[in-house]
């Protein structure tokens, strides 16, 4: 059973890697993003999207840990 699980995980990661690679190769047009008064240098669209993906993958779980920690704190305080 462990072997099947590992194979599924590896195949899933390979599919994700191929999809990201295809996205990067298809989105090479140069753009500049501006927000409020800040602007970036001209870079391919794929750079911005992949950076946003990575940041979301990092920030999402961190927010989940913070929210879960606050819930535990509220629950433990209410029982005191």
TrEMBL record:
Q: Name one GO cellular component term.
A: plasma membrane
- Could you identify this protein by its name? Lipopolysaccharide assembly protein A domain-containing protein
A Pfam cross-reference name = LapA_dom
Source species = Pseudomonas poae
Keywords assigned by UniProt?
A: Cell membrane, Membrane, Transmembrane, Transmembrane helix
Q: Which residues form the Lipopolysaccharide assembly protein A domain?
A: 26-72
Transmembrane stretches, start-end:
7-25, 45-67
